[in-house]
User: What shape does this take?
Amino acid sequence: MRSIDARPGRGAPVNSSSTRFGLPERMADGDWLDDRDTIDDAVPPLRTTVTTEAARTIITRNQSPDIGFDRSINPYRGCEHGCIYCFARPSHAFLDLSPGLDFESRLFAKPNAADLLRAELRKPGYAVRPIAFGTNTDPYQPIERDWRITRACIAVLAETRHPLTITTKSDRVVRDVDLLAPMAAERLATVVVSVTTLDVRIARTLEPRVPHPRRRLAAIRALTEAGIPTYVSLAPVIPHITDHELEAIIAEAAAAGACGAFFLPVRLPNEVAPLFRAWLDEHYPDRAAKVMATVQSMRGGRDNDPGFFTRMRGEGPWADLLRTRFRIACRKAGLGHIKLDLRTDLFRPPDGPQLSLF
Assistant: This one.
């Protein structure tokens, strides 16, 4: 039975989800729909809206012991890619919006991001460490084509010779090769391209507004040919949906020039789990129970294991099998692990307002 909230071209089948933050649930609102009549009683698609946000800071810091970076930049809130498994979905609840359809259709842009970044890099005592893009929402989601906030931030880092890493599911990153290639030549930039499936039929519902898998493989090739160290991410691997493609993805990425790879078993934080279950019921009702049983077998009998380190690896026979398959596939393809060997000694703070006059 089709969900009443399901929309063409969107990932989440519903727009309501209980949250750990005590905020009220939100249901789909007809005012968000495109101005068109329904055809044969079909629900029309949602219109994407973008609201500008006057951010006060732009570098987000974390102290998580199982994450390989301590700072990141997110030019946008929400992500139009609509990946059903996205662990960033719960962040929309802080805005009193749903982690469901709201997250992928009601977006927020930070047009002052580059100015804030320049100001933060100028602060006395700033300690240089690589800044990560794409750790929450995708910096190259469709609205970046017009807003170009990610590019503006990269331009500041290029000017100051500050190291960065980028993780994206979009081939739009190739647009910024002119900035990234010179940085990579000085060991200041690496890119990770996420490829979760090669099957376009799966991709259309799993990550409905992400570029075609072949375009992402082409992006790996283009970035590598430009001299930018580029890796492939198989995150997440979903049992009984995408796990059978693990070896093929690694082989294709290696052929495209990727220099390393990593993977994560699917994670389902509190607000994501019910959305993912609804997605399974909508698109894979024949195996929904089997998928969730296997996920729980890797997560201590729960939908999600939030513990440091185990949340990234998973436990049990299924998780062990995935790790073994991944290791063998990488060895056959000649791929290593991701190594972020970036320089920090080239950084030069941006000029202040007064110095720029001379």
